[in-house]
Amino acid sequence: MKQHADLTERSPFPVKIILVTGILLSAVAFMNFTFRNELPDRQHDLVIDSTVNDTAVSVGEGLFVRDSVTSVKAFAEVYKVLMSPRCMNCHPAGEVPLQGDDSHLHTMLPKRGRDGKGLYAMKCANCHQPTNIAGLNKPPGHPEWHLPPANMKMVFEGRTADQLAKQLVNPKTNGNKNMQQLLAHADDGLVKAGWNPGEGRTLPPLSHEEFKKAWITWIKNGAYAPAAK
Amino acid sequence: MVQLTINKKSYNLDVDPDTPLLWVLRDIVGLVGTKYGCGVAQCGACVVHLNGEAVRSCVTKVSRAEGQKVMTIEGLSETNDHPLQKAWLELDVSQCGYCQAGQIMSAAVLLRENKKPTDQDINDAMAGNICRCGTYLRIREAIHLAASIQQKG
Quick one: residue B23, left, alpha or beta (phi over 0 = left, psi -120 to 50 = alpha)? Predict the structure, then answer.
């Protein structure tokens, strides 16, 4: 008996401390999971990869933080731009792109087609040239003029802010983009074409620089979706 | 100088690269089958094929066509017996005729990509070609007829 007591007293492992620490860590993990569900819903790899510490996570090359207030505030600005005609007109709910500052159905009713580039003699590039054509009512241009494809329509028209935010961060609905690609998308050629729309077309409500700043702020602070209304 | 291949013939033309292809075709090369209707890509009278696609030559700069293959209504068939041309004649589609070159060139792309188009397919393909004379019903019928002529070979 004395031998057993000697062994116990000399044990290098503080069993009780380890046990209590394990219970505490489990409780923290449980609480983290619970509070995460109460935050605005989001679906992206930030959450999955968040193992570094409580407030900062590292995804790929960038450093992201979780600041839902800053993120949602920035998204309000992003939403204004994405729902303006220069962006929304090529992200319609239906098969026909929208046109004009009043977002009416595009004259002559061209259709999306399977790849988003139109159909038959009504392909986008048949009229939309690689550059803008000067003059009122002439078609604006870009080398890659097209809609999202039929199998991933990336609709903006009719989306609420929370719906759009969730759609944008989900690779299954955003054109298979990860967070880094989403960040880079602000400088996509066709996106920037919205700020060079040709004569007679209203610019988006923010400059491209302001939009890009809001876009990055939204994403790098956690890409939170605002609460659904 | 701009090098163009038009209806399988090669041309070296001293034109401003920003000149709309329509005017190069009509005024320089002398192919007047393609018409000017609106100048803003909204009527379809100016449709020609650029590498087989139905572009609007009134807004297409000639520089875009450089080194590419252009086909006008004159080049659709060397013997003027394309199924569409046959169908158009058989059903007496044209009235004034002004829009018809563009109509046929657009329909040609449809029939190349869809051998048996439905009415909806015809709507989708031809909605950008307008006709002041209202020959739409005959255009539709002629496209169906051309499809069956094409199928019979």
Answer: alpha
Q: What tokens does A46 get? A: 């930030």
Write the CATH number of the domain with boundaries B2-75: 3.10.20.30
Q: What is the distance, to the nearest Å, from the Cα of residue B67 to the centroid of all Cα atoms in its chain?
A: 19
Nearest 5°: the CA angle A26, A225, A180 is 85
pLDDT at B94 over 80: yes
Of A111, A127, A130, the CB nearest to B41: A127
pTM for this one? 0.82
Helix pair angle (B136-152, B100-113), 10° resolution: 40
Q: Is residue A226 part of a domain?
A: no
Burial of A89 (0-12, 13-18, 19+ CB in 10 A): buried
Residue B149 parent element (H or E): helix B136-152
What is residue B66's predicted lDDT score, i.e. its pLDDT? 97
- Beta strands A118-119 and A104-105 are unpaired
The reply to whether A170 falls in a domain is yes
Q: Using 50, 70 and 90 to split pLDDT, how confident is the model at A15?
A: confident
Same-domain check for residues A11 and A79? no
Give the pLDDT band of residue A24 (cuts 50, 70, 90): confident
Q: Do the domains at B2-75 and B83-152 have one common CATH topology?
A: no
Copy the structure tokens of residue B43.
């009527």
Q: Which of A109, A122, A138 sits opposite B59 (nearest CB)?
A: A138
Return the ∠ at Cα A135 (arms to A133 and A137), rounded to 5°. Answer: 90
Q: Tell me the ipTM for this assembly.
A: 0.94
How high does pLDDT run on average in chain A?
83
Neighbours of B127 (CB within 10 A): 20
Interface test mutation site (partner B, options A117, A119, A122, A146, max chain B beta carbons within 10 A): A122
Residues ≥6 apart with Cβ < 8 Å to A5:
none
Claim to verify: residue A119 and residue A16 sit in the same structural domain: no
Residue B117's CB: how many other CB atoms inside 10 A? 22
